[in-house]
């Protein structure tokens, strides 16, 4: 045997290992990437479609909510206003009665009844007046219009209520406009200013 015969030649009849990949079994990397790209594109198209639908649904929802809110705001005070209409009717009847009959006492009594009715309507909606006269001045409840020197009361007390204040439940709706006491002038103050 020669050296050339000792070199083994591959046996063409041998079967390849079942576990070893062959060139024909390996997927084409370009084809794999194209398939992944196509899958990703389909997924992106699906998400884009879902996004556009959700955006349209949200826009419709936003318009509907804005419309409903506008209707709520327009009609929010309907029950309050409906409660005030009878008070206006009472004022009209009082004015008519005052025109026909010149009885001031009856007219005054009628207006007092209307005021009481009106205050009850306000109270039903949480609006109540608060008293200020004789109480200490408080910027949280009062607006001082002027100070009046008073010897009969300490300084910074509400002497007179010019315009009544109102609470809406637990907060001030309108501050009371008041006149506040100050220390009386002494003769020395009068001479010092002259």
User: What strand order characterises the main sheet?
Assistant: 1-4-5
Largest sheet geometry? 3 strands, antiparallel
Structural class computed from helices and strand pairing? alpha+beta
- Mean pLDDT over all positions: 83
Number of strands: 6
In the CATH scheme, what's the topology name of the largest domain? Nucleotide Exchange Factor Grpe, Chain A, domain 2
Helix percentage range: 40-55%
Tell me which CATH architecture of the largest domain applies here.
Roll
Number of DSSP helical runs? 5
* Domain module tally: 3
Low-confidence stretches: none
Give the full name of the CATH homologous superfamily of the largest domain: Head domain of nucleotide exchange factor GrpE
Note the run of SSEs as H and E.
Answer: HHHHEEEEEEH
End-to-end C-alpha gap? 149 Å
Indicate the overall shape: elongated
Radius of gyration: 46 Å
Quick structural gist:
The protein is of the alpha+beta class and 194 residues long. Helix content is 53%, strand content 17%.
Set down the secondary structure blueprint:
Blueprint: H1 3-6, H2 29-75, H3 78-100, H4 104-124, E1 127-130, E2 142-149, E3 158-163, E4 165-168, E5 171-174, E6 176-182, H5 187-193
Parallel strand pairs: 2-6
Antiparallel strand pairs: 1-4, 3-6, 4-5
Helix pairs in contact: 3-4
